[in-house]
Amino acid sequence: MNIMAQYSLSQKLAILSDAAKYDASCASSGTNRRDSRGGKSLGSSEGSGICHAYAPDGRCISLLKILMTNFCIYDCSYCVNRVSSNVQRARFSVDEVVRLTIDFYRRNYIEGLFLSSGIIRSPDATMLDMVRIVEKLRHEENFRGYIHLKTIPDASPELVEKAGLLADRLSINVELPTDASVAKHAPEKKPAQIRKAMADVRARKDAARDRSHTGKRPPRFAPAGQSTQMIIGADGSSDATVLGQSTRLYSGYKLKRVYYSAFSPIRDSSAKLPLISPPLQREHRLYQADWLLRFYQFDLDEITSVTPDGNLDLDIDPKLAWALANRGLFPVDINVAPKEMLLRVPGFGVKLVGRMLQTRRQRTLRYEDIGRMGGSMKKAKAFVTAGGWSPGGLTDSADLRARFAPPPKQLSLF
Amino acid sequence: MAPEDIRWGHEDEPGDLFDQSAVSEQPGGATVPRSFLSMAQSVVWHSDPSRFSRLYAFLWRLNDKPGLMADCADPALSRLRLMEKNVHRCQHKMKAFVRFREVGSPDAPRRSFAAWFEPTHHTIEPTAGFFARRFADMDWRIYSPGVSVIFESGKTRFIEDQPRLDLPEDAGEALWITYFQNIFNPARLNVQAMQSEMPKKYWKNMPEAAAIPDLIASAPERARQMAAAEPTSPPLRAEKILARQRRQGRAPVLGEQ
Question: In A, residues 160-219, which contact B (CB 8 Å cutoff)?
Answer without folding.
Answer: 184, 187-188
